[in-house]
Amino acid sequence: MSRRTFWILVVALCLVAAGLSLWLPREAAARRVSDLYRRYEPNPHLSVAFIEGFKVNDTLAVDVTTVTALDDEGWDTLRADFRIPELPPLFQQQIEEGKDMLSLRFVSKTDPSHTMDSVDMLNNNVIAISRLKRTICIFYTSTIAEQQSVYFNQLEKNITNK
Amino acid sequence: MNLPNDKELARLLYAGAARRGAEGSPDGRLARVLEADNRRWAQRRAHAAWRRRTTAAALLLALSVGLPAVLRLAAPYCNVVTHADPREAYNAVCYLLENQNPTVA
Q: Which end of chain B, N or C, is surrounded by fewer C-beta atoms within 10 Å?
């Protein structure tokens, strides 16, 4: 093999390897996303993101799917799918004035649109809803400790902020 | 006075021996020995060059695989999969979780 052929082959191999090392992790990440991400990704009225290993605190990291409504139609879809109740006019007015109302609850792992599984707590994820930002976040928890960390971390912060 | 080095000396000896020597003569034997020696050296040089080339190629290959991977891992929000703005998505989770100031993933 001549020196020129050798180096042409090496450069070609390097280009292929670099391309693969850029493409493969992206492809792998796209395969790891949640079902919810896949479900809402094609909807043009919603913006969806999946975060792998979001740090809740120093010791805990959980996967999170976040869905943000881009318009009224998107928000209506989210409200219907996740059974987010209509607020009384007074609260609704406060949100329109720029005050947020965060809510946190448990939802079933198998179907996030359903309420929590009260028999088996491990069959639940934690969902957080912001009405002002029209965003929901689902925290994929696998243990009771993780659920408590996510749930009480938020409560603790809110109490501290007050 | 400049003395010839080993390689030059071998070449001179080989040239002289080939010029003068006949088969079976001491000069002829010397010529054959020197010729074999030269061949061996040429082979060694070729092997060394091949080793250098393959080492350089392996290094290049490792760099072309490792560098994009390292850059990707070092990039902020590398753990966010989204078609929108990853920073915005990350901040939204921070806001919802604890109203904290977002930090880069």
A: N
What are B10-30's pLDDT values in tens digits? 777 777 666 665 555 666 677
Does ipTM surpass 0.85 in this model? no
3-state secondary structure B5-18: CHHHHHHHHHHHHH
Closest residue on chain B to A126 (Cα): B97
- Token representation of residue A135: 């965003």
**Whole-prediction pTM:** 0.68
CA–CA distance from A66 to each of A39, A43, A121, A134, B76 (Å)? 12, 14, 22, 11, 18
Q: Mapping DSSP to helix (H, G, I), strand (E, B) and coil, where does residue A61 land?
A: strand
Given a contact cutoff of 8 angstroms between Cβ atoms, the answer to whether A140 and A147 are in contact is no
Q: Which of residues 56-95 of A touch B (CB under 8 A)?
A: 56, 64, 66, 68
Neighbouring-strand partners of residue A69: A46
Asked if A25 and B72 come within 8 Å (Cβ–Cβ), the reply is yes
CA distances from A129 to A2, B15, B77, B82 (A): 65, 92, 22, 19
